[in-house]
Amino acid sequence: MAESQSSHQPGAGGDGPQPAGGFQAALNKMNADKVMAAMWLSRLVTIMFSISFVLPLFGWSQPISGQRVLIAGAITSALRLHQRVPGIQMNREFVATLLREDSAHYLLYSILMLMCCQPVSVILMPVFFFALLHVTTYTKTLLDCVGPQSMGLIRKLIEKIDIKQRDLLKLIATVEVTLMPVTLMLVFSGAASIMLPFGYYRFLCLRYTSIRNPYTRTVFNEMRLLGEYLSRHPKCPAFASSLLLKVISFTCRMAPVTSAPS
């Protein structure tokens, strides 16, 4: 790194420029990778407005806080997508590559929710939890720049989030699945556009076929097994058992085909 270059100047005698440390080192790190720094800041904004949506500590109304959560989430997803697929090409293969990226899924999700419905807490949960999960890595990097033992309380919090990573990813997938019937309820209550369930179904298909994130498929499979178990239970009424099996059959028919991993 550049920090080691000044010590080799002839005649320096140890009095040459010293490497930057503390908060200046963290600022230098952010300046060296502006996209990562911008994503980190947008995730912090997402977390801040998510808290404001539940607890109006900053004076913003719930609708404004909810919209800003989705806008910040869309900015984060767009930046991440730019990292993963930097070039733009006007052909079908490029679009297919784009839609395989999880960041593209949540860019579409944020835009869909901004356009088609009023923000409610369950809609904001996936965006908030993804921001919480991914903000920790870069925060830890910046803390290491400040000092190896700096801000021990924040480091302990980051460790706890890292330990719960799989649980949080599964929670996000569960919310993604259960949001499908929620979108229908929002339409019938007049809180969402009729286009929301159709757009959300396409989003759910993208999540189901995600290459990097298998949790949505796992949750669907676990729900199917649970439904089949309940339908066979001796205490389950015949009409409920029949209804469960019909719902399972319909859901399986609507699920997209996934290719086996190579």
**Percent in strands:** under 5%
Uncertain runs are 1-19
Helix content: over 70%
Shape from CA axes? Answer: globular
The number of helical segments is 11
What would you call the structural class? Answer: mainly alpha
Q: Indicate the mean pLDDT.
A: 87
Reported for the largest beta sheet, the result is:
none
Number of beta strands: 0
Radius of gyration from the CA trace?
Answer: 23 Å
Q: Would you list the SSEs in sequence order as H and E?
A: HHHHHHHHHHH
What distance lies between the first and last C-alpha atoms, to the nearest angstrom?
Answer: 38 Å
Name its key features.
0% strand; mainly alpha; 262 residues; 11 helices
Structure description:
The protein has 262 residues and is mainly α. It has eleven helices and no strands. The chain is globular. The chain starts with 21 loop residues before the first helix and ends in an 8-residue tail after the last helix. Mean pLDDT is 87; it is low at 1-19.
